[in-house]
Amino acid sequence: MDFSFTAEQELLRDTVTEFLAARYDLENSRAAARIGAGWQPQVWRGLAQEVGILGAALPESVGGIGGGPVETMIIAEALGGALVVEPYIDTVVVGGGLLRRATGKRAEDLLAGITEGAVITGFAALEAQSGYDYTNVATIARRDGDDWLLTGSKCVVTSAPLATHLLVTAVADGEIALFVVDVDPAAPPAGLTVEPFRTIDERPAADLTFENLRLPADSLLLAQAGEAVAATLDEAIAAVAAEAVGIMRKVVGDTVEYAKQRHQFGVPIASFQALQHRMVNMHLELEQAVAATYLVTLKLTADPVERAKAAAAAKVTIGRAARLIGQESVQLHGAMGMTEELPIGHFFKRLTAIQYEYGTTAHHTARYAALTRP
Fold it and tell me: Which percentage of the chain shows pLDDT scores above 90?
């Protein structure tokens, strides 16, 4: 099988990498995440207007380039290598994926806004009782004339404090439906309570409570959203797997370089055979993660069962690799590995968080078993 990129895809990769190398400073990013706005709006505008990657995988009809899963994989890996906190996966992959599967002018306008960098979305799906089951929805939307009234709660909605629009799942007329809620991050609408917090990897998130939140009729994007949500989440798993690969490439490279520079007993610690074995194990885990990411990326257009199997396998492989590579890199750096001053600690936090995004390793092991059971 040929895994080589086209000339256009290689250009996309080089363009994104060069932009981030010139414009994305890790120290400034961490400061913005910890004590600032949680992100850098000027970088987001640059990604939209200067590099144009926010529309790379979106339809040409809404101002996008019309790319596909491979383009998303290339972009996500580059963003991971720079530890970008801006909400690319939440907005472009998840938000864009759901809106592509919706119909009507409202969805088209929102997609165009994502391409321009003006729309940021948060996906409000999980609830306290849900676990990682996105079909376990207790939030209710009921009709009130031409409007809808939304009541319920959602937890750990990443990017919600930044979002201009929330995409919310709720039971309407007996089906899981998808609604859009316009929000002003500084002044949420009446009936919506936002409780913001930071995740362990310093990303903005929030718990949401809806109390008879009134929505206009065109807020209903999908009356039957189950398959759209399932397909979009598998695309998100592929993207976060690519992000993890970008992070792990950086972590493995930095660890090997550190081992060459750090001396003990008068020689580089990279010369110690026991440490060489551990770094080889890191590299092997990385290569397996790359293969799993390629597989799920190519399977996103397959039938739902094959797509789901590839997504589950990728999440398990990525979870195992992220755990081993993250922990080994910190140990091989010694106590310095967990300091704020050294980048490795920040990469480790993100790798730890990725193990739990869109389902844990255990959850997707069980999912894969269920999908392959006779």
Answer: 87
First to last CA, the chain: 29
What's phi and psi for 205, nearest 5 deg? -150, 175
Which phi and psi (to 5°) does residue 204 adopt? -75, 135
Q: Which two tokens stand for residue 282?
A: 């890191």
Q: Contact at 8 Å (CB) between 212 and 191?
A: yes
Class of residue 334 by CB neighbours under 10 A (exposed 0-12, middle 13-18, buried 19+): exposed
Residue at token pair 């400073």: 25
Tens of pLDDT, residues 330-345: 999 987 777 777 889 9
Of 156, 26, 14, which is closest to residue 85 (Cα–Cα)? 26
pTM (whole model) above 0.70:
yes
* CB neighbours of residue 119 within 10 Å: 20
Neighbours of 331 (CB within 10 A): 13
3-class DSSP state for residue 277?
A: helix
Tell me the Ramachandran region of residue 117: left when phi exceeds 0, alpha when psi lies from -120 to 50, beta otherwise: left
**Angstrom distance (rounded) from CA 245 to CA 293:** 8
List of residues 6+ apart from 6 with CB closer than 8 A = none
| List of long-range contacts for 17-26, beta carbons under 8 Å, 24+ apart | 17/78, 17/81, 19/46, 19/47, 19/50, 19/51, 20/78, 20/79, 20/81, 20/82, 20/84, 21/82, 24/82, 24/84, 26/82, 26/83, 26/343, 26/346
Name residue 261's amino acid.
Q
Ordered by where they begin, the domains of the chain are 7-119 (1.10.540.10), 122-222 (2.40.110.10), 226-372 (1.20.140.10)
**pLDDT, tens only, 238-261:** 999 999 999 999 999 999 999 999
Task: Count other C-beta atoms under 10 Å from residue 99's C-beta.
Answer: 30
- Look at residue 102 and give its three-state secondary structure: coil
